[in-house]
Amino acid sequence: MLNDFISLIFPQVCVSCGKSLYKNEHTICTYCIYHLPKTNYHLDNDNPIAKIFWGRINIHSAGAFYGFNKGGKVQHLIHQLKYKGRKEVGFTVGKLYGYELKECESFKTVDTIIPVPLHDKKIKKRGYNQSESFAEGLSASMDVSTDFKTLFRANESETQTKKSRFNRWQNVESVFQLREINSLQGKHVLLVDDVITTGATLEACAQTLMQIPDIKISIVTIAYASN
Question: Which domains, ranges and CATH numbers included, belong to the chain?
Answer without folding.
Answer: 37-224 (3.40.50.2020)
